[in-house]
Amino acid sequence: MQKLHSTGKFMRYSQYLLPTLKEVPADAEVVSHQLMLRTGMIRKVAAGIYNYMPLGLRSIRKMEQIIREEMNRAGAIECLMPMANPAELWHESGRWEKYGKELLRFKDRKDADFCMGPTHEEIVTDIVRNTVRSYRQLPLNLYQIQTKFRDEIRPRFGLMRGREFIMKDAYSFDLDDAGADLSYQKMYQAYRNIFQRCGLRFRAVEADSGAIGGSFSHEFMVLAESGEDAIVSCDSCEYAANVEKAEVLWSGQETPKPRQEIQLVETPDQKSIKEVADFLELSSSQLIKTLILQTSTEEVIAVLVRGDRELNAIKLANLLNVDWVLPAEESLVKKVTGAPAGFAGPIGLEIRVLADNEVCAMSDYVVGGNVADRHYIGVNHPRDVVIDQFADLRRAEEGDPCPRCSGGHFESWRGIEVGHVFKLGTNYSDAMEATVLDDKGQARTLVMGCYGIGVGRTVAAAIEQNHDEHGLKLPLPLAPFQVLVVMVNPKDEQVRRTSEDIYARLLTQGVEVLLDDRDERPGSKFKDADLVGIPLRVTVGARGLQEGVVELKIRTSGEQSSVPIGEIVSVLQQHIDAAAD
RNA sequence: CGGAGCGUAGCGCAGCCUGGUAGCGCGCCUGGUUUGGGACCAGGAUGUCGGAGGUUCGAAUCCUCUCGCUCCGACCA
Fold first, then answer.
1. Contact criterion met (CB below 8 Å) for A151 and A104
2. What value, to the nearest 5°, has the Cα angle with vertex A476 and ends A473 and A480?
3. Are residues A217 and A335 in the same domain?
4. Is strand B within 7 Å of residue A531 (CB)?
5. A523 contacts: CB under 8 Å, gap ≥ 6
6. Number of domains in chain A
7. How far is the CA of A46 from the C1' of B68 (A)?
8. Which of A27, A58, A506, A552 is the most exposed place for a label (fewest CB within 10 A)?
9. A479: exposed, middle or buried (C-beta count within 10 Å: 0-12, 13-18, 19+)?
10. pTM for the predicted model, two decimal places
11. For A466-514, how does the pLDDT look when each residue is reduced to its tens digit (9 = 90+)?
12. Is the CB of A53 under 7 A from strand B?
């Protein structure tokens, strides 16, 4: 393990820059953001742009080091690419045009176009096509740990979604698909190792790879209430997926025979599913929602889902092979259905009608009447409704049966996406003509993969998962210091000497230790200690010294014990070694 | 991008409606008393009231513009 700032001089609290705040800063919403500000780990410079203060930087560096070790072990090679990217490479890949306002563009003194790299496929592909000629040099996986810039619509939550952020990004190059799959597997395993070593609870979930055509993709999600993504995982097998992607099992039930006649009934002013269901004294699962949507190809379609379900627009977009689908404007809904929003139904529509599989098994249901204040009841397909296509279109929910194993059910979580592994294929190598010669002397287009980890975001996610009302409880591998030595009263000569001695011995052993030598009241020191949350706290006070002991407190468990002065260093070392396993 | 809100001391805020030249708590500095869970007393420093313009004898306060920041939304039929 690399030693951080190995001189002792600045490991004294009185000389260190550790600006803690008693009060919660007004504009911090999530816990990790609040605590990072309060502990003085970060300070904001502009929206989504932060200073990494000394304490924060130490945790960031810890994270980077774990990543580095595992990447190296997996055979990846570190390099460093520039932040400023010339536009020409981005023109080559076509992304100068495609990338929207997130790409921060600027000009140099000669008026040439540049951008701040939000990701580095172009640059790395350029490196490889210029330097790799033969299949013998493959496979190759280049990575860097570097600052990225994405001009986010809405930066928020501190390091969780900044505009400028530190990212580890890796890119693999292989001769063929099979090789690329192997590179992908290696990264997948490296990522599991990384997050495990950080002591985080996480899931590797199947993710939507989008219409780009990438074959597969996993997101690494740290489980936390404040997570921006919804994920599901099976309670009995390994299957886990982003809800954007999660498959809903369809057993292919037959449509029941109609028992009711279709009938148009009055539903004055009852627009939402809940209102209609309550009004008709039915459950919302007996209703069908008719969504009028428009696609990026300017088609207008209707989609039917059971009243208590939600449409998964990404599944729909993938099925239709379009970039996006959005709810139609109210005026368009009126034009297509003839009724104000809230009364749309599938009967008599002249547009394409798709339905979620589940609708297939429904009978005698309720749909909108396509007339204001009217719904149909006793509706059945195919008798009353023409459905052009059934497909898996709804959003997966907690309790849904697992599509991969028998008997398993979905649990649902919120997750923070901290890593993403993605098989790219030949998108960039094609566009940028990155080829090598194979063993037959034929030029072959390289098959690529890309693999990212948000470094700052992972630290923030670790805080979301490891804190209490007093402050941080970071796991030892990510904590900025391993040990805090609190000298209760620096004016007491014996207390001072003992603390200094323990501190010096720890430094000699390479332990990352901070000595709180401030002339503050003990209460303040303990509050700061809890806030900053250094995992192992040694308290040296006159009270204990009379007995020849110091006090050891474990921040994460709250466990306290008295340890003879002579043994404290080895006891601490044992704790540190235990955490390294 | 649409909507809402905020900008006053390092931090958290009051003052603005009803105009009269800026205040509270924490922090900071000095001295003293204190010293095992955010002490007490006494004294002290700190503000282009986000910026520009306007109204007025007079603007933190009213008006206009502008910049910055925060939150909510962008899957209601």
1. yes
2. 80
3. no
4. yes
5. none
6. 3
7. 9
8. A27
9. buried
10. 0.89
11. 999 999 999 999 999 999 999 999 999 999 999 999 999 999 999 999 9
12. no
Most confident of A232-246, A256-270, A501-515: A501-515
Strand B closer than 7 Å to the CB of A330?
A: yes
Q: Are A247 and A408 in contact (CB under 8 A)?
A: no
* Region of poorest pLDDT, from A34-48, A237-251, A462-476: A237-251
**How far apart are alpha carbons A243 and A564 in whole angstroms?**
54
The answer to whether the beta carbon of residue A40 comes closer than 7 angstroms to any atom of strand B is: no
**Are the CB atoms for A407 and A239 separated by under 8 Å?**
no
Reading the block at residue A149, the tokens are: 């810039």
CA distance A172 to A180: 7
Same domain, A370 and A318: yes
Detail the DSSP E strand segments found in A316-351: 325-327
CB of A398 under 7 A from strand B? no
In chain A, % of residues over pLDDT 90: 66
Same structural domain, A503 and A423: no
Tell me if residue A17 falls in helix, strand or coil.
coil
Specify whether A185 is located in the same domain as A328: no
| Chain B footprint positions (protein CB, under 7 Å) | 1, 11-13, 25-27, 34-39, 68-77
Do the domain assignments include residue A170?
yes
CA gyration radius, chain A:
29
- Give the domain range for residue A179: 57-247+412-463
CATH of the domain at A511: 3.40.50.800
Cα A38 to Cα A256, A445, A495, distances in angstroms: 61, 51, 29
> Are residues A167 and A286 both part of a single domain?
no
Cβ A169 vs Cβ A144: under 8 Å? yes
Condensed to tens digits (0 to 9), the pLDDT of residues A301-323 reads 899 999 888 888 888 888 888 87
Q: Which of the nucleotides lies closest to A38 (Cα–C1')?
A: B11
Through-space distance between the first and last CA atoms of chain A, rounded to whole angstroms: 13
Q: Which CATH number do you get for residue A304? A: 3.90.960.10
Half-sphere exposure of A505 (CA within 13 A, CB side): 15
> Average pLDDT of A457-466?
94
In a domain, A428, yes or no: yes
**What is the complex's ipTM, to 2 decimals?**
0.91
Q: Which residues 59-98 of A interface with strand B at a CB distance below 7 A? A: none
Measuring from the CA of residue A316 to each C1', which nucleotide is nearest?
A: B75
For the stretch A339-382, pLDDT in tens is: 887 888 999 888 999 999 999 999 999 999 998 889 999 999 88
Q: What is the Cα–Cα distance from A287 to A345, expressed in whole angstroms? A: 11
